[in-house]
Amino acid sequence: MPERTDKEMQTMKTVEIRVPDIGDSENVEVIEVMVKEGDEIAKDQSIVLVESDKASMEIPSPESGKVRELKIKLGDKVSEGTLLLTLDVEDLPVSSVEQPKAGSEQNDHPAKAVSPALGRNGTKNIIECDTLVLGAGPGGYTAAFRAADLGQKVVIVERYPVLGGVCLNVGCIPSKALLHAAKVITEAEEMNEAGVSFSKPEIDPGKLNQWKQGVVDKLTGGLAALARARKIQILQGKGQFTGAYEMEVTGENENWSVRFKNAIIAAGSSAAKLPGFPYGHPALVDSTGALDLKKIPEKMLVIGGGIIGLEMACVYDALGAKVTIAEFSDGLIPAADRDVVQPLLERIRKRYEAIYTNTRVSRLEENGDRLTASFEGQGAPKESGQYDLVLVAVGRRPNGKLIGAEKAGVQVDERGFIPVNRQQQTNVPHIYAIGDICGEPMLAHKASYEGKIAAEVIAGQKAEYDAMTVPSVAYTDPEIAWMGLTEEEAEKKGIPVEKSVFPWNASGRNLTMGRRDGLTKLLWDKSSKRLLGAAIAGTGAGELLSETTLAFEMGADLEDIALTIHPHPSLSETVMFAAEIGLGTITDLYIPRKK
């Protein structure tokens, strides 16, 4: 235990720091002790990280001072009132400080990061770093973590109180959690045909929301711990460039001026809006609003037949809503080949109330708690429809024009994208851009890949974007996944391709799962038989696609795939079977020889 000097004895007093009100959590485990005896800590600095079955949560210190004695250790169980440590603090006339509750304004999220070196005085604080990362989504946090691992002093600027960006908080992760719930419901329904019947599910939207949020909190809390382990400083606020080497960050209670040697822009994108719609009406939502299951609507309209719209349609259909899709183009998921989308289309035609393609929603009018939609276009219905919930899912727009990039001299195109080279550099060499903001496809895994490149180039390593493809997946039921060339792209580019398709109604594993829909398609060069593209429709297609993506990156041909022994019975066999069809060696189907 550290000794105090006579002078300190005269001006300091010892206080006990205990676990504050942490809601209904009891006997939660200490998974990280973030201070040690003798440390000088600031008010609101996190001192321990605890984890319940619902979430990870940081507990901050209510006062500044020097840690005198730790009373807990890693693995201990704590509850409200448990003594964490004793703290030597200045003996001021007014020394009683109320401990903040978890969820209060001072600590409104378990993963909220407040720099212990900075006060809440509304003044501008100056910070210097090697690398500044603007945005903490999958691309941003990956870039920051990699840069820190390579020896950089890193600052993350994130406007929201948690790391993870749209993907972890209001995108990929919560939507997949709800899609899992939807899958359980529909599989239970469909087992009726096999003689296994369940009663109608009772759905509690509030509890389902809590479970979904628990998944999110687990991941975002983990990210906060990873950032701390790397000694990355996180500033919560809105970042704006003020020059080529400086960014102003405006927080709720304080401002910072960050001076950097290098910057990585990972500011992402925002949901696109259609003009003239009554935004603000409770029945009109974007994807974020759709993920907040306040109640299950009786009738739902999804504007946009792309991946986001169809995934949310899949969730609400399983939960009991009557779903209508309105898509402006001539088909759903326009980026994928029509034959691959067909198994999904056939399934949802039987389940959804209506699917309109070549259709535009020309007007939305308020009608009490509901909205009345009018339609136009070749495939549009003549009559308007009334809906309890309308989801606008017509794509996303990059945030390039929202960050003051012009003050740093960074070029931003008319759509808001920031052009980059293969090292992820913008036209200003020490400023990089990754993820949605630097071009299509707007996918989290592309952003993470680019984030590592930018960090490694900054650290002086030889790195560049050399991926041959970015795989895409719609986590619908059935899933639709593709990579490399599509047939439509090959035709437009004049690239001759051969194709082989294995239908999943001949897959033993698929049949044992109660399904007959699905297909695996390979595209390949006729002379070399080298793989050029692949597409899969069916259960778990997103998982199966990785084999074909690796084969494509390695320059594999059909023999490489066909002569690799796959487990039986499995869905992965369908990739091998498709390759065998191309080679003419398949025995699980009879395909007459070409004359």
From TrEMBL:
Reactions the enzyme catalyzes: N(6)-[(R)-dihydrolipoyl]-L-lysyl-[protein] + NAD(+) = N(6)-[(R)-lipoyl]-L-lysyl-[protein] + NADH + H(+)
Cofactor(s) recorded in Swiss-Prot or TrEMBL: FAD; (R)-lipoate
Any Pfam family matching the protein: Pyr_redox_dim
GO molecular function annotations of the record: dihydrolipoyl dehydrogenase (NADH) activity; flavin adenine dinucleotide binding
Residue span of region Disordered: 97-117
Domain spans labelled Lipoyl-binding: 14-88
Gene3D superfamilies: 2.40.50.100, 3.30.390.30, FAD/NAD(P)-binding domain (3.50.50.60)
UniProt cofactor note: Binds 1 FAD per subunit.
Keyword Disulfide bond appears in the UniProt entry: yes
GO biological process: 2-oxoglutarate metabolic process
Keywords tagged on the record: Disulfide bond, FAD, Flavoprotein, Lipoyl, NAD, Oxidoreductase, Redox-active center
Enzyme Commission (EC) number: 1.8.1.4
NCBIfam families, alphabetized: lipoamide_DH
Record PANTHER family: DIHYDROLIPOYL DEHYDROGENASE (PTHR22912:SF160), DISULFIDE OXIDOREDUCTASE (PTHR22912)
Family indicated by similarity: Belongs to the class-I pyridine nucleotide-disulfide oxidoreductase family.
Misc note: The active site is a redox-active disulfide bond.
Protein name: Dihydrolipoyl dehydrogenase
Biological source species: Oxalobacter formigenes OXCC13
Gene name of the record: lpdA
